[in-house]
């Protein structure tokens, strides 16, 4: 979870403990303080919001069938699994790639268990028809979101949502509409997330709620864009440790966030 430090008050000088260290200039102190805050932004990691059963949930916490959030950052998320899906079993993909630019996606050969190609564009698993009428490689998007309640953004409760290929068209259309018509980035508005009632699978729909009007919050979000992008690009929960090669025994670990 990315922690917001803005609500931590500084104690008056008379209440602070006397220091025996060499005095540090105020401008250097400010730099060190900011670096300290940024250094712990990702210390606990981000919560993961599941869409299973067309309901939002974070672990055992049920969040209902709709959410209102601010989308702080996003990235492309390609993942290829070489073993059949097993409900409730944690298993990382054999190959994956995360990135901001869809045209330059490529697996990191030092991080993925079994890279299938040098880049996603030329990979056979990433071509239509490689699995029935679709792709063997799942093309998704990751969204880093924060709650948007009563016009306020809560940066202390940041979470990750992975959207499936079936929701990509809706998401892309919504993002482009905001940029081209309203001239706003996703993180400057509240977004309402719901599920399409006409299909059985979790097809996400995105709707504009209102502008974020708190100027201090907008400046804070803008200043933290590098941190938010780093968070959304973190490969967790993908790992070599949770990868089960074809034919190997399942890890047995039960997933709480399918």
Task: List the topology elements.
Elements: H1 26-39, E1 47-49, E2 56-58, E3 61-64, E4 66-80, E5 95-99, E6 137-149, E7 152-153, E8 159-163, H2 168-182, E9 189-195, E10 204-211, H3 215-223, H4 225-232
Parallel strand pairs: 1-8
Antiparallel strand pairs: 2-3, 4-5, 4-6, 4-9, 6-7, 6-8, 9-10
Question: Which key features would you list for this structure?
Answer:
single chain; 258 residues; alpha+beta; 8-stranded mixed beta sheet; two-stranded antiparallel ribbon; 18% helix; disordered N terminus; disordered C terminus
Summarize the structure.
The chain has 4 helices and 10 strands; from the N terminus they run αββββββββαββαα. The model is unreliable at 1-22, 39-44 and 252-258 (pLDDT under 50). It has helices spanning 26-39, 168-182, 215-223, 225-232; strands at residues 47-49, 56-58, 61-64, 66-80, 95-99, 137-149, 152-153, 159-163, 189-195, 204-211.
């Amino acid at each position: 979870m990315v922690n917001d430090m803005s609500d931590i008050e500084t104690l008056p000088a008379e209440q602070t403990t006397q220091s025996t260290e060499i005095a540090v200039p105020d401008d250097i102190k400010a730099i060190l303080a900011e670096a300290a805050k940024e250094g712990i932004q990702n210390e606990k990691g981000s919560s993961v919001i599941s869409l299973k059963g067309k309901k939002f949930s974070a672990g055992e916490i049920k969040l209902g069938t709709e959410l209102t959030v601010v989308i702080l950052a996003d990235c492309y998320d390609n993942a290829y699994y070489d073993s059949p899906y097993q409900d409730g079993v944690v298993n990382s993909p054999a190959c994956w790639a995360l990135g901001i630019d869809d045209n330059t996606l490529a697996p990191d050969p030092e991080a993925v268990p079994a890279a299938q190609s040098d880049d996603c564009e030329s990979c056979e698993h990433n071509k239509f028809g490689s699995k029935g009428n679709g792709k063997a490689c799942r093309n998704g998007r990751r969204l880093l979101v924060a709650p948007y309640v009563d016009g306020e953004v809560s940066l202390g409760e940041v979470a990750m949502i992975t959207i499936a290929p079936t929701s990509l068209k809706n998401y892309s259309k919504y993002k482009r509409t905001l940029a081209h018509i309203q001239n706003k980035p996703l993180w400057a508005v509240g977004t309402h997330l719901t599920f399409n009632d006409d299909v059985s699978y979790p097809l996400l729909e995105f709707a504009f709620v209102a502008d974020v009007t708190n100027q201090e919050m907008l400046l804070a979000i803008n200043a933290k864009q590098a941190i938010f992008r780093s968070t959304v690009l973190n490969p967790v929960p993908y790992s070599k440790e949770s990868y089960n090669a074809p034919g190997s025994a399942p890890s047995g670990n039960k997933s709480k966030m399918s």
